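Translate sequence into structure tokens.
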Amino acid sequence: MARNLQTGEPEREVFKALPSMPPARPDARPDLVEALAVVRLRKWSIAVITLLFTAMAIFLADQQTPQYTSEAKVLVTAVDIDPTTGQFVPPDLETEAELVQSQVIASQVKTLLNKGKGTTFSGEARALLDGVSVTPVTDTDILEISYSSPSPAQAQARAQLFAEGYLLYRQQTVLNKIRLNNTEIRAQIHLLQRQLNDVEAQLDSLPPGDPGRADLESKESLLQSLIVNKQLDLLQQPDTFSPGDVIQPADLPTAPSSPNKLLDAAFGLVAGLSIGIGAAFLRDRLSGRLRTREQVEEEAGAPVVGSIPRVAGWRRSRDAVAVTRFDARSPAAEAYGFLRTSVLSYLATYGGTTVLVTSPHMGDGKTATVSDLGIALARAGKRVTLVSADLRRPRLNHFFGLAPDLEGLSEVLLGRATLDQVQLVVPVEPARSLGSRARQGATVRLITSGRVPENPAELLGSPAMAELIGELEDSADVVLVDAPPVLPVTDALVLAPLMDAVLLVVSPASATRSLVTSTRQQLDRVDAHVLGVVLNRSNMRETVNTY
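Result follows.
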């Protein structure tokens, strides 16, 4: 009994141990893995965008005029008294901050500037507000008043004048309120005094003992008491008070506050990195590229049954290289061994012999898959027949070093030759380290395409092709048929219903969501039994996979 090359177990027991083909895709990997794959693929474009934005930020910082900022701190005292409690009301610093940045304070500052407390200013007062900013200090009664200007001396002078102008305005406002209040109290006293004079005159006109004197005397007493209280209120009004103090005068800045080149560069770096990553994901979404095995399985509607890594040293796709013939220990050869196990497991579970190997379009590596998978099957002791059914661009013969003008499939289908005449027995060079006599002299049977006919699709769909497939099934354990790509021509769709299974070869380097989806839809229309997907020349993670 033949044994598995990787495990050493009997091949048939390995097949029984493997579960049947899953009907649905496995659970998706976390989105983070897919995101990292996109970033890794687009790393150079992300780096270029990041460097571009960083350089742009530094350049713009160099073009800016340096600004100097000076700051003064003002302690705001309470000046308003709550009439119900008689206590001072704490100042509302948010309101006071807005007051500092108002046009009325700017006018006060302009007046101070033109009185010789700084460089004279002839513009509109509101223009002074462009450089001022006010920040209330949390949990205190302190305002931080800052001013920015290209001139350090101007920044210092205007920060100080905004602090002084604010306090001066606040003092004048409160004094005006006191004056108005005093005027109102004096007017009330004057009115009460007139009323008192009238009452006293009435009392003088009444004789003693007159019954009306009692009410007039009571009114007189009340008016005298009200006048005294108003006079006391007038005496309690302050002549002077402190609206606040400048507890930290504005200093002369020695270094510019902006531009901050380090901060600008950091901002450009973050912005460039964000835009670069966003552009990478947008580009990836628009391109429709498949980045992970799970994405391939989702779009193909079938599991990935093999993932063949890139063959080191195989630079030109035109070179026909069957890697399993020359390096049985290479990662690619090992991957074909796992693919062989998957294919045999499917055939053992579902029954059948014939497998159609196709791809979405040219260049995906379907013919290489046929040749290397066939060699792997032959080395496992299987009777393998390879059929080159790509009658448009046949290449299978090149993988075995055969001439392109040999009679083959087209001659058999046209009745010009028999199967025995065109079927070739090609020796498979055994791996040096196999050491099993059962595999010495392993061969594959090969039917080349023959001459390219004028009507490939009609020829492949003829009764002669179905008859030929039946003959091959009787004489082989596995028949691998190399068919043209699905999307460009209909040849594979004509052959698919004749086969027990279809193996779809996809190259992640060129595969897109729409391409794989369209291929599967075409195969579904002809009721093809898709065995699974082979990722050829794959750099996706988990490159080796079985069921």
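Note: Residues 152-205 form the longest helix (54 residues).
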